[in-house]
UniProtKB/TrEMBL annotation:
Gene Ontology molecular-function annotations: ATP binding; ATP hydrolysis activity; peptidase activity
Name of the protein in its database record: ATP-dependent Clp protease ATP-binding subunit
Any single Pfam family the record assigns to this protein: AAA
Organism this protein belongs to: Chondromyces crocatus
UniProt cross-references to CDD domains, sorted A to Z: RecA-like_ClpB_Hsp104-like (cd19499)
Start and end residues of each AAA+ ATPase domain: 233-380, 517-682
Taxonomic lineage from the root: Bacteria, Pseudomonadati, Myxococcota, Polyangia, Polyangiales
Residue ranges of domain Clp ATPase C-terminal in the record: 690-781
GO BP of this protein: cellular response to heat; proteolysis
Record-linked InterPro entries: AAA+_ATPase, ATPase_AAA_core, Clp_ATPase_C, ClpA/B, ClpA_ClpB, P-loop_NTPase
């Protein structure tokens, strides 16, 4: 028997609640998290209730036509305490026939259906139900009353179901043992499902509740599926297509079509439509360990399907020929279900890729023949764009995002070409959904995240590892810069480096074959020449990390099972190579010592190099068209002896021997590889034996790696290497036969052991600088303990005000304004003007004397500088006094003027006082809002503190304005130690403490007059003002010298001299030594840098000779300041900044965007320095 029941439903963000309507004493209420589960439990409860209810009671159940819901605003006085309740309440209006001719309408609250009254539909509804609710709800508390109010999401819906209720005859007395009646009753009762509710998902329930997305229909495939699954005689169907082409969505659309064809939207009864369940073969046999156990469960599944016209949707049908097989039995799911499918007891709908279909037809041809195949092609770009637009609008409704006009096109163009393992539209829709979760710029007006092409490229770079610079078409890539980066890492192999740089350029330009790997290379040459190192560099350049290098040692694949291990076999379908490339298709495949691999491996490589794909034993395809394949080989490298460096005429003989060896290698490679495989290698790249000069350069690089290890940084140890250490190591350890490997061993054995002993004996708390130097035939270690600088004999006047309340700061600013007025009229400023006149007159007399001698010229310059400083001081005092007064007025304000302006802004009226009567008048003003004056905001705490500090600084400057050497300084910054372990090819790799301090000094006080820098590669650059300084700060300067001029800059910067230490979690610590020098005549940034280079050359020469050492130009002073700061990952965000200044005796913790911002409070304190006596 079929029933149709109306429901009242209410949705909240976390729950779904529903109540049956019109059932009287049979009313049921259910609540839960998801709608389809709540409705399923409700239907089961209703079926159970109706089967137990007498037939006479069920006869009265009838769905009222015209049932509707009204939301009524009521203001009621509830209970004896007469507390007021106001709100909107849902009211159900249910039409009923009182007699055959008279019709009445009942009104009641859906959650209290026993409290109902007939109403007059022509009269206001609120007045009629108010009296009822006030009386009926008198005993309810405030919480219960709030639950009864409307949430705005209530509605009425209808459900239908079928059950076998008791008949009238069942209520009559029966004779004892009436077996015929019991048998007929048991037949009428439908048998419950056993297996499907435990293992499967009811797709019909999800479709009926609207939780099944059928996408946009694609014909003719939709019509084909609808015909094959039609009500006449369903056939088993196999939907075949590449991953992401829409197979699952097409099946979901077919389920929705079946639901509509069975008339569900008319009768709303799921028991009257066909059952469609989703199940997997793995789930069906999971946990079945005993022989015959899974067969029993499959038999129960067939019993569930009996008489129900059941359709099973299976997503792993291609695994059926193997699922179920074991050592005890060769029977599989394919063999079990072959009979039921042939007899049409069951309908299966499966999906698979063409490769999986081929495997299914090979392993179970009779089972595969039972399916009708529908081949679903990849969607076109136009179809994909329409689907993406639909999905984008749906995401914009659900999420606070807005997709830019170029976002969808970028996903199609760039994402479509990168993610070739999936087809359209699936990969484009997945990327669009991921983009909806990505961070973006927030629009201030709409609070929506704006997602455009830059966000798409950032997301694709994070997914694939490919750097953004290779994805952005508008960003150029300098091949020369790439070659220079590679040359710094792979030394002495210019030809190999050019090949690698050319590959990067071709990937950037999109000139690689989309069906093949990016490149197939054979690196040949002696051991230890950089073959593996270049492969790591390529992996880091192309894919962002050296971990993207997938290394396979071919000596382990020399047996006849080598091919099976790489691509899998029947018993182990996951191959070593295919599985790792499926997990990470953006990678570099390194086949080390390819000559040791079994010949069967070469046959696989032939397919890989030609088609860019391999299929494993499970039918899964691994695609290599975004990978680079590098093979290494030592073929021919051992055919000759050592090259004999150090003998007479060794240079000429080594060059000839090297050329002969390269010819031997090329001949051995051609002889080893089959022609069809050799011709598919893009480039055979020869690696030449290392020379002693190259070995020395390699030694320096490997020493740098050793000194950046975390063990040193964690113990506050910083290591520098003196001149001559690398040369000595290379001389002692280099062997032409072993290449760089012999050097690496020597570094570990000698320098590594030396550092290990130092670490063992080092104090954990002490910060130390270790210097490795040559001592005779051995290596020695010098230790320098970095102590904290003693505190300065000074106090900071503004320090008590840093955390003072705003009222206190306002009073201090007022007092400062008074002091500045007194200062402008003080005798000190008058004397300053007199000194200006004196020096100006002396300057004029000196100019009138003409060019006489250097002493006279020096006096002229001195007088000119004094005039400039005194005049700047006077102008500074005057300008600052006006600025302080402006800030004071911004704090105090003119209350009456502000009130008048607010009135005019809000109401177009102006309030003023009549001069004659003294009364307050209101005057209308017709004025555009755009013409109204803008209310100036009150100054911030930081602005007030800035003014207070500057006022104090000016008072101090006035006392020292004529002190010699105060107004020009030279600041030398030396990068003394760094543990930067970030990726070596990342943009702006350093950007560390030296650059941060330089930017902070340039903005702290005075102006930068000039600079000089020693950059990487011993390149010296210089400039005037700040021109070109930004470019230097974006590079890798080792030494930077700034010339700063301004009033009393020496007094401000002199406490910076010493060592500054920056530590963080994301990178190793960094040390910068700062020296502040008065800019006396002849002392310029250029001269200071030249002096540093000269002293460094002398120190290096003394170190090489091994004699008495001179003072090191890189010696560190006491630690002035330490930072702990991890820069925020996203620009504009804040991060925790901890600073401890030992000289100033100040420690602080704050949230800032950069080190420069974190130093601003220290500059504030520094300006209020007051000397104190000991």
């Amino acid at each position: 028997m079929h029933f149709t029941i109306p429901l009242f439903e209410r949705r909240t963000p976390r729950t779904y609640q529903t109540v049956t309507l019109g059932l009287g004493p049979l009313t049921l209420t259910r609540e839960g998290g998801t709608a389809h589960r709540v409705l399923r439990k409700l239907v089961e409860s209703l079926q159970e209730t109706f089967e137990k209810t007498p037939a006479v009671a069920l006869a009265r159940i009838e769905m009222a036509r015209g049932l509707r819901i009204e939301r009524v605003r009521l203001e009621m006085v509830i209970g004896a305490e007469r507390h007021k309740v106001s709100g909107v309440f849902p009211v159900i209006l249910e039409p009923r026939w009182a007699t055959e001719e008279e019709k009445i309408t009942l009104a009641y609250h859906p959650e209290r259906q026993n409290e109902a009254i007939p109403i007059d539909e022509d009269a206001p509804l609120a007045g009629q139900v108010r009296a009822l609710f006030q009386q009926a709800w008198a005993d309810l508390d405030a919480v219960a009353l709030e639950q009864l109010q409307s949430r705005g999401t209530e509605r009425i819906k209808v459900i239908g179901f079928s059950c076998s209720p008791r008949s009238v005859l069942s209520d009559l007395p029966r004779k004892q043992g009436d077996a015929v009646e019991e048998l007929s009753r048991s037949k009428r009762k439908r048998r419950a499902l056993k297996v499907l509710p435990k293992l499967g998902v009811n797709l019909m329930t999800r479709a009926a509740s609207g939780d099944l997305d059928g996408g946009v229909p694609r014909n003719p495939h939709r019509d084909q599926l609808a015909h094959l699954l039609g009500p006449a005689r369903s056939q088993s169907v196999l939907v075949v297509g590449p991953p992401g082409c829409g197979k699952s969505t097409s099946i979901h659309r077919a389920v929705l079509d079946v639901l509509e064809a069975d008339g569900f939207f008319t009768h709303r009864n799921l028991d009257r439509v066909r059952s469609v369940w989703q199940l997997s073969g793995r789930r069906l046999i999971s946990g079945m360990s005993r022989l015959g156990e899974w067969e029993e469960q499959c038999i129960e599944l067939l019993e569930d399907a009996e008489g129900r016209d059941l359709v099973l949707v299976v997503d792993d049908v291609h695994h059926f020929p193997r699922l179920g097989q074991s050592r005890q039995s060769a029977r599989s799911l394919a063999e079990f279900f072959r009979g039921p499918l042939g007899r049409r007891q069951l309908t299966l709908v499966g999906e698979c890729t063409p490769e999986e279909l081929r495997m299914l037809e090979q392993e179970a041809p009779s089972f595969a023949a039972l399916f009708t195949q529908i081949h679903l092609p990849e969607a076109t770009r136009a179809e994909s764009l329409r689907l993406m637009l639909r999905e984008a609008r749906a995401l914009e409704r659900r999420l606070p995002v807005s997709f830019g006009p170029h976002a969808l096109r970028t996903i199609l163009d760039v994402g479509g070409s990168l993610l070739t393992s999936r087809a359209l539209p699936g990969k484009a829709l997945d990327l669009l959904r991921d983009l909806g979760k990505a961070p973006g710029r927030v629009d201030e007006k709409t609070d929506l995240r704006l997602l455009g092409a830059p966000e798409v490229l950032k997301m694709l770079s994070a997914k694939t590892g490919v750097p953004e610079v290779l994805l952005q078409e508008e960003t150029s890539l300098d091949p020369g810069a790439v070659e220079a980066q590679l040359t710094a890492q792979v030394i002495g192999q210019p030809e190999a480096v050019r090949v690698a740089a050319d590959l990067v350029a071709r990937v950037k330009a999109g000139m690689t074959d989309p069906r093949r790997p990016y490149g197939v290379f054979l690196f040949t040459g002696p051991t230890g020449t950089g073959k593996t190192e270049l492969a790591k560099c390529l992996a880091e350049l192309l894919y962002g990390s050296p971990s993207r290098l997938l290394r396979f040692d071919m000596s382990e694949l020399s047996g006849p099972d080598a091919a099976a291990r790489l691509i899998g076999d029947r018993w182990q379908p996951d191959g070593l190579l295919t599985r790792r490339v499926q997990e990470q298709p953006f990678s570099l495949i390194l086949l080390d010592e390819i000559e040791k691999a079994h010949r069967s491996v070469h046959a696989l490589l032939l397919q890989l190099f030609e088609d860019g794909r391999l299929t494993d034993a499970a039918g899964r395809t691994a695609r290599f068209n975004h990978a680079v394949v590098v093979m290494t080989s030592n073929l021919g490298a051992r055919s000759r002896g050592a090259l004999g460096f150090g003998e007479v005429g060794a240079g000429v003989r080594s060059q000839v021997a090297g050329e002969e060896r390269m010819k031997d290698i090329a001949a051995a490679v051609r002889a080893f590889f089959a022609p069809e495989l050799f011709n598919r290698i893009d480039r055979v790249v020869p690696f030449h034996p290392l020379t002693p000069e190259v070995a020395t350069a390699v030694t320096r690089k490997e020493l740098g790696k050793l000194l950046r290890r975390r063990g040193l940084a964690e113990r506050n140890l910083f290591v520098s290497v003196a001149a001559g250490v690398a040369e000595k190591l290379s001389e002692v350890a280099f062997s032409a036969e072993d290449g760089a490997r012999s050097v690496k061993r020597a570094i570990e054995d000698q320098i590594g052991s030396l550092l290990s002993d130092a670490i063992s004996g080092a104090s954990q708390a002490a910060m130390q600088l270790l210097r490795v130097r040559v001592q005779g035939e051995e290596f020695a270690l010098d230790r320098e303990v970095l102590e904290e600088a003693p505190p300065a004999r000074a106090r900071w006047a503004i320090e008590p005000l840093l955390h003072a309340p705003p009222a206190t700061l306002a009073r201090e600013l007022g007092a400062l304004s008074v002091r500045m007025m007194e200062l402008s009229e003080s005798e000190a400023l008058a004397q300053l003007s007199a000194r200006i006149q004196h020096h100006l007159e002396a300057h004029r007399q000196g100019l009138g004397a003409g060019d006489v001698e250097d002493e006279r010229t020096s006096e002229v310059v001195t007088h000119a500088e004094a005039v400039f400083n005194f005049d700047a001081m006077r102008a500074e005092v005057a300008a600052f006094g006006a600025e302080v007064e402006h800030y004071r007025k911004r704090i105090e304000g003119d209350a009456e003027a502000e009130h008048m302006l607010l009135e005019a802004r809000r109401f177009g009226q102006q309030v003023h006082f009549d001069d004659h009567t003294g009364t307050r008048m209101r005057q209308m003003r017709i004025v555009r809002r755009s013409l109204l004056g803008r209310l100036e905001r009150a100054p911030t705490r930081t602005e007030i503190l800035e003014q207070l500090a500057e006022g104090f600084a000016l008072q101090q400057v006035l006392r020292k304005v004529d002190a010699p050497g105060q107004h020009a300084v030279v600041i030398e910054l030396l990068r003394a130690g760094t543990m930067d372990d970030r990726p070596r090819f990342s943009e702006g790799r350093r950007g560390g403490l030296l650059e941060a301090l330089a930017r902070a000094y340039a903005d702290a006080r005075g102006e930068v007059e000039g600079w000089a820098a020693l950059q990487e590669g011993q390149r010296v650059s210089r400039g005037g003002g700040v021109a070109g300084l930004a470019e230097v700060l974006g590079g890798d300067a080792e030494v930077l010298v700034l010339g700063v001029v301004g009033l009393c800059v020496l007094d401000f910067f002199e406490l910076e001299s010493g060592t500054h230490v920056w530590t963080s979690l994301g990178r190793g610590p960094e040390l910068v030594r700062v020296r502040v020098l008065p800019a006396s005549p002849g002392v310029t940034p250029r001269s200071v840098l030249a002096d540093h280079l000269a002293r460094k050359a002398a120190f290096d020469e003394a170190t090489r000779r091994g004699g008495e050492l001179v003072e090191s130009p890189s010696a560190l002073g006491p630690v002035v300041r330490t930072f702990r700061f991890d820069p925020p990952e996203r620009p504009g965000r804040n991060a925790t900044f901890e600073v401890e200044d030992y000289v100033m005796g100040h420690a602080d913790r704050m949230e800032v965007r950069s080190i420069e911002q974190g130093l601003e409070p220290l500059w504030l304190l520094r300006r209020t320095r007051e000397e104190v006596s000991s």
